[in-house]
Amino acid sequence: MLSLARALMIQPKLLLLDEPSLGLSPNGSRRCFEKIIEIKKSGLPCLIVEQKAAMVLEYSDYGYVLEMGNNRYEGRGQDLLNNPDVRQLYLGG
What is the rounded distance in angstroms from the CA atom of residue 41 to the CA atom of residue 22? Predict the structure, then answer.
């Protein structure tokens, strides 16, 4: 939360987040993403790199799924979340 607050203090035009849930408890991750959703709703674009893909894709306007550094899938967040190949290969079925 402190990192998010520090980043927002400079009033960025784009917020870049690298693994914002890393090291957080499940409750902490949920609260962190609630804040990110609030930030997104305020109109500030966010670019997020995250291992918890299902959580991020649920709220993403657009997403990329990488495999070995290459773009394997891309599209609207909900479309990727509902894609059977993406679900099977990357989201645990």
Answer: 23
In this structure, is the dihedral angle defined by the CA atoms of residues 20, 21, 22 and 24, taken in order, positive or negative? positive
Contacts of 93 (CB under 8 A, 6+ apart): 87
* 91 phi and psi angles, rounded to 5 deg: -115, 10
pTM strictly above 0.85: no
Domain ranges of the chain: 1-49, 52-93
Instruction: Determine whether 50 is exposed, middle or buried from the number of CB atoms within 10 Å of its CB (0-12, 13-18, 19+).
Output: buried
Give the pLDDT of the chain (93 residues) as one tens digit per residue.
788 889 999 999 999 999 998 989 999 999 999 999 999 999 999 999 998 888 889 889 999 988 888 999 999 999 999 999 998 888 876
